[in-house]
Structures are given as C-alpha cells and as structure tokens.
Amino acid sequence: MRPLIVSLIPRSLPPVIYDRLAEIGDVVFWPSLDPAAKAEAAKRAEVLIATSSSRVDKAVLDTFPNVRMIGDFGVGFDGYDTAEIARRGIHLSHTPGVLSDDVADLAFALMLDAARLMPASDRLVHEGRWPQGGMPLAVKVSGKRIGIAGLGRIGLEIARRAEGFKMTVGYTARTEKNVPWQRFPDMLSLAEWADFLVIVIPGSLETHHLVNAEVLAALGPKGFLINVARGSLVDTTALIRALESGTIAGAGLDVFEHEPYVEDQLRRLPNAVLTPHIGSATVETRTAMAHLVADNVKAWAEKRPLITPVPGTERDPD
Ligand code: 8YV
User: What digits encode the pLDDT tens for the residues 45-59?
Assistant: First the structure.
C-alpha cells in the first residue's frame, strides 16, 4: 500500500517536491484538512514533511502514532525533539550541504550592507535625495578580522569567501579543524578579537543567548554582529541596547528570536540591516533542498539507509 505523506506545512515548497513525493505515496496538506480528514490522516500517516521552523515535539509525534519517517526541509533541526524521535525509532532526515553557499553568500551580503550602509544609500538614490548631498563615509570590510562562531559547513564557506576579501579569519568550533585559521576558545575571546562576528552555530538549549551583553561589549563600538543561524543564539534585549548605545557599530540579522515578529525597537534602528530568514531562499537552493527531502523519503520507502539523516537519529532501514 502507498504510504500516506502528511505535509505539516501548506503547499508552499518548490512544486518539484510534491511531484517527487507523489511518486512515492499519497500527499496531503495538514493545514487544509477538515477535522474528519485530520483524524483519518493522523492515524494513517507514515511520513511527515516539515521545515526547520516547524515544531515536532512529543505532542505532534503522539498525534501521528504510525509515523516512520520525517523529512525536514532545512538543515536546522532545533524544532524537533530528536531524542524522542530516536527513542521511537523514527527516521529523520535534513538538508545539509546544499544550502551552505547561499547562507554564506547572505552572511557576506549582510556584512557589506551593514558596513557600507547599502540600505540607506539605496533609499537616498531612490528617493531623489542625492542632489541634496551624498552619504556619510562608511566602514571598510576588506582586510578586516572576521570571527566565525561555528566552523561547520556554512562557516567554512564563509571563511573561504573571507579569504577573497583579504580578511583575517578566526573561529570557534567544538573540535580543532585542519584549517590555517586561528581557533579561539570561546565566543567572548572571538568577539574581543573580531571586527565582524558572524554566528553560524546551530540553535539548541546549550547555545541559547550565547551572544549576550558581555559578548557585545567585547565586540566593541567598531564591531558588527551578523547572525544567519538562529535568533535564539542572541539575547535580543541586550542587542537592542548595544545598537542603541553604540556599544557595537551595527548588525546584519536574517534570523530573530520571535520571528516572523521582530521587536519594534530593532525595526527602528538605522544601524541594523534586517532580512526575513532568506538564507536558503533562492530558486536553485530551495529546488536542491526539495530533491534532497524527496531522495531521503525515497530511500526510506525503498528500505535503504537515509542519505542525510539528522545526527543522533541514524538507524538501520525498516
Ligand atoms: C529553512 C533554515 O530551511 O535550513 C535551515 O535550517 O533555517 C532555512 O534554510 C527555510 O526557512 C525553509 O524552511
């Protein structure tokens, strides 16, 4: 019998994922089911599709007692109760690798935007205010120190780009890496050293508010904070205070603690460049992510090992 595949999110992913999944099983969209159809789908579902912003906790898992496989459309899995998923023997895949270039590109876009005052420059020209005077001088990026907090796949891509910008690279990582760059013992010492502190650490209970008032003070009045990882890494109240008081020079943020809601004070700050979690949001990358989710579901359906299982949930095929 064809497995029932329940998408926990509306039909909003690249269409190719639905074509691919329909070759494997019957696909339904949870948010658009009526209560009776939900009750039926909850019993029958063997596969769930969710994104990195989904919450897949015990209550969700209890709702779908026959689920064997979950495909996370994203690399981050902080919304998933991985311990419980592993305990229940459920397969869980994610999409590492295919989005690293895009997220690294965005980190650079945010660095350049914040330091070179791109949003304000763009508005000045669009609004016809150039004849009244140009922009104040900005901050140079090339040749500066970039502190990469988290040298995983994305961090490595950022470091490679930084070399093209003639920057000196420093990083933190749980283990020593075979790279020519300086490793720092913690976020605080990295912030003290860096001109640009770029956060690419996964969200988790352990990494919650790793960037706090002390780290921001260490980054200093010429320093910029760039976050393309998770909003939970940064104490937003401390960040707003640091941006308002000039404790740091500026920030470029793609992720927020309470996204899609962003604090009014943060939205009002001229020295913060804000984007709506678009790290992986290109046609090419989202299409590659869609294929990788489908490839993983296909591997599960064919009783092969998953291609990209979430660490800690790996298990033999059913
Ligand atoms: C999301 C992300 O996947 O991969 C991640 O962890 O945060 C993003 O790429 C994207 O928002 C789609 O849900």
Answer: 999 999 988 999 999
